[in-house]
Give the backbone structure.
Amino acid sequence: MSPVAKYALGAGAVALVSWFLFPNLIALLITAGLVAAPVVAYFMLDESQRARLKRVRRRQLGR
């Protein structure tokens, strides 16, 4: 299982559990944080780092 799939599965499980354990607003904030964390991390990369990440992803898709 790829690291991205593991993150998505874990984030989905945490979001689902949080909807049952916490009030709606707190669960919504937790879910938004789980989605926003990788997006913010990607946008913090330099242009060269983003290009390198894109090349690596393309190379892995071609396997």
